[in-house]
């Protein structure tokens, strides 16, 4: 008796066909792409020992290089700090303009998003060429280039975080009659702040690693030493640099963690 | 009154904390700014900017298609293929590491710190080193490019994944714990369904970055659009740079459209 | 005075939230809205301050149509209508005081509010509001560190600080314990009495509605099925508002469709 | 002669080579290619950077009769590493990278050098085919720098230490004139010879060390660059880029490859292609000793 | 049978959640736990299935200590204890059926459950559970599309499908309307009666506690202040459980400290 009732009331199981088709299509795309670029896992497995050759050349790291490169590392950090700060400031308006739940005008939001997309497509090489010509081969050009580069990352990650915030406080700001700026300051900002801070610190970290762009505008920094060590095939020095950067990155990560804990 | 006293004390403590923070930041920025000098706009500013803008206004259309190959279309297609396989590889590797690094999934913070450290390590590996490692294994070409991008993305994707997991609602996981589910079941029933949208958007973001990772691909001789772009910039052929960048933007926008249409159906 | 004329609301997915509502709520009333889950209580409340845009009809607050208001004038009208949300809608990461002060933004210059430079008068008002709901000492606490009942009281304080002439409260006592529930309801009654603030409140619990309100409005499937003084709301009336016998099989399923 | 312990991965480099060694046990220590992979980095002193692989691929295939894959990279490390692991058979290497690869890894053996026309003072090409090029130091035309001595205390834009034309040779002539490139002048390290020219043009550097004649790279952006700058000094000859093979390459094949390239340079069709794409005018046989000068310079700079 | 012996819980921040609790709950009982917000009701419930690790004492389920259990044996013990959470704890984006099936994971091979390959028997069990709480037709609906009451019923169905011998329910009726509340309570009573399942339920509302439970436990500041049959719980008893007069100023503040 139970079963007959089950059958009569049970809704039709929704067809998962389109979902499976989609999955299949994705799989086919990936598979075809892999074939196209001739990614044969077997070759990788067979030759993977070749990596050891390079790794062996890296060991042991040339610790003295850490001392040699410290001034450059400090330069990199200070340029990254300023570049990230500027990028952070510029990305604030951009991220709000790109968030669908902040600005209801589809036109405005979509235009901002496309603009952000284009901005992110400009390669660092090109940024370097432009700003070196405008501001000279100087740290300033590097900082400006880094800040443009940072806007792309911070704004992109942050506007997605904004779109995921709780709608409740936003409604309550509507209800008290707040204008847009107040609405953002009281409803949006406190909610995205932890994310925003963590993305800024993440970008800071990227900027320290994106040393190449600084080298390109003649601003020196750690990138120059990477190139030099590579140019002389001094992989032990390269490893020293990697470990040095790792230390800096881990420190930034710890700071980020602490701040997030405070804010979350 | 008891409450006003403690209120005052709280306010004082807050003020002291903020002042300290302010002093630290001020010192930091003073140090950073000390190295800067502004020399004004240089003579070269205008000619270069003008030429670059000109290049973008009149892009090198002849580069779009070339019957011999080595044109924009084929470069983009190959870059697309590299980016797709690369992102799949990094997802496969970054999901477990990301889950490992998420603080709220492990009982002891030491465990998640291990995951975070691993991710930091992957983030510090320079692209060029990855490129060298993989070129030694599989030779120059798209395959090595895919590997370098795929492994290079683990650090970033894992970090974004871990943060997504850390921000999720603990309730559903708790309910799986309460029915006696093991770790894997907690993940499958409590975590993954919640974080899936976040994972997907982080993955798409990374895919997009892969599309733009000209430098890595150029180093490796991957045959995508990376090498020509780098040469065009180094050779200051701005019209060529223009057409390549337009091509990349168009592909990224199309992929964006398709993926957001798909996402509406899956998520 | 709040007047609803032929108000209907059809949600984009076709659900009729409200149908032909005609109501007049006078200043100083304490109106309870009761009804089943999905009856349209929240929709009604949220239409009054236009958090929900109605599909047809008109809503006037003190003879001014909020339906056609926009920009600055809409903001000013909203300033005079406080709302207490079922889920509190506090910014959890902000301090209690900042949450309460956010009720004052529409009175102040944008720049000052953003940088938290509220006039001392406003800060005093906010502190007084907190005192009134008995959580003054939590002023600098993060809102996330409060218990549910305390959070609800913060949101009441926000409305108090707003110096609103109308308070809309959407199930303000759900998930509170009976002691706190009583406290919250007493607060609202006090404001209603002392400041002559109109209170419109959604309630799940019939006995609370009867105890506190002067007037009860029963909603069912988007329509008003009862409107009268609390004392007229007999058990039969509630039986009608809530539809069928409690043993009925499919109460929720129907409304969702 | 140069096969030292550094040659790795030669035996199991690719599937094809594995088969091949099985078949020809006797010749186990030399490598007979069944297909060739060529990788090159367009040299810095090319004026057009139209780096395409396909045309060269076709030409070589025609000459050699086996499959050839040509691959373009932007970094010399990858070429050397790939050669060291037997992933590629032929690499185009600039002199300094060749010396490193040869001396430290035993990963490369030079068989050819590219030839170009010489360059005149005004940047135009000469008639003669040469296997070397020069580096030079330029300054603004209106500056009072006339000779190397005048460079003392001035800001000079160099490339990084690994660059022959952008640092090593110019530093060499400075040292010859008793000017220490690190202490007697104010060195500014830039990336890209075009950056050097730009830095001189906008006054950020008083002089720049560049290959002859890097001004051609920026002539689109600054049409008057040749009038606005002058050459202060020219360095000694720098050997042109090499074409190197992995050292275990079968001798017969070395010759075959040499011939193939030389013939390409001599045929009309081939010349057109290598000129357009790589700014090469032909290829000449070469040997390791041609690069002793590079070693000399490296030592002088190091010793300083 | 659930036995708590000298159970205390001190949270890392020093808050005493529970203090020296000694209780024995027999099979088939319907126990209501009442108390102020912050009294420790949730802590008590969550200690029983060890979602909260107690600081001292011991908790035994059918003579087996859950306090010292771990790994597989802990999971098996938990399998037999269903929990209904105040906030439902459904995965909103999963279908109703998958949420209910998640109650079956501990009975099945991990691999199968992950790929949703539940045996037909389990699927039938889940569907029957949904039928029992009257939302069978929502089986393939996304849980986010349900109203609050329906979501609560899904979580009850999950517990039913779990075939638990004990059900812990943490304020399962908060924010439900009276009709749905009654329905949920009736469901629990039915399970209690029909399947002889022990039910331990946190309730804010005294009248519900009195109506449904066979035994009431009153908590105050982490201690048991009343324990007896529902009929003995007079108004004075509740007055004691809830501490002071309802007009008292600082009810919540104290407990938070
Ligand atoms: N954003 C929306 N989109 C579509 N339908 C909606 C939306 N909000 C509410 N509804 C529907 O409108 C009807 C009235 O909803 P409303 O929230 O006003 O009910 P309610 O009386 O407040 O119920 P509850 O007591 O559960 O809060 C319901 O059927 C609901 O499903
Ligand atoms: N994770 C935690 N960390 C620190 N203190 C906690 C934690 N969870 C609860 N507490 C504290 O323990 C005490 C008991 O909390 P519990 O959640 O058990 O109360 P409750 O009786 O369920 O209240 P409510 O009716 O509000 O749900 C409270 O004072 C609370 O602040
Ligand atoms: Mg509602
Ligand atoms: Mg609780």
TrEMBL record, chain A:
Domain ABC transmembrane type-1: 73-256
Broad class of the protein's primary localization: membrane
Originating species: Alkalihalobacillus trypoxylicola
Entry GO MF terms: ABC-type phosphonate transporter activity
Name under which the protein is recorded: Phosphate ABC transporter permease
A GO cellular component entry from the record: plasma membrane
Keywords assigned: Cell membrane, Membrane, Transmembrane, Transmembrane helix, Transport
Pfam family, one: BPD_transp_1
Family: Belongs to the binding-protein-dependent transport system permease family.
Superkingdom of the organism of origin: Bacteria
Compartments, record wording: Cell membrane
TM region positions: 20-37, 79-103, 124-154, 181-201, 208-226, 238-257
Entries under InterPro entries matching the protein: MetI-like (IPR000515), MetI-like_sf (IPR035906), PhnE/PtxC (IPR005769)
Keyword Protein biosynthesis attributed: no
Membrane topology classification: Multi-pass membrane protein
From TrEMBL, chain B:
Major location category of this protein: other
Transmembrane segments: 20-38, 80-102, 128-154, 187-207, 214-235, 241-262
Record protein name field: Phosphate ABC transporter permease
Gene3D superfamilies attached to this UniProt entry: MetI-like
Localization, UniProt: Cell envelope; Cell membrane; Membrane
A Pfam family: BPD_transp_1
NCBIfam families: PhnE
From TrEMBL, chains C, E:
Keyword hit for Transport: yes
InterPro entries attached to this UniProt entry: AAA+_ATPase (IPR003593), ABC_transporter-like_ATP-bd (IPR003439), ABC_transporter-like_CS (IPR017871), ABC_transpr_PhnC (IPR012693), MetN_ABC_transporter-like (IPR050086), P-loop_NTPase (IPR027417)
Name under which the protein is recorded: Phosphonate ABC transporter ATP-binding protein
SUPFAM superfamilies per record: P-loop containing nucleoside triphosphate hydrolases
Molecular function terms from GO: ABC-type phosphonate transporter activity; ATP binding; ATP hydrolysis activity
Pfam entry (one): ABC_tran
Organism field: Alkalihalobacillus trypoxylicola
Record-annotated ABC transporter domain positions: 2-246
UniProt keyword list: ATP-binding, Cell membrane, Membrane, Nucleotide-binding, Phosphonate transport, Translocase, Transport
Any single GO CC term annotated in Swiss-Prot or TrEMBL for this entry: membrane
Highest taxon listed in the record's lineage: Bacteria
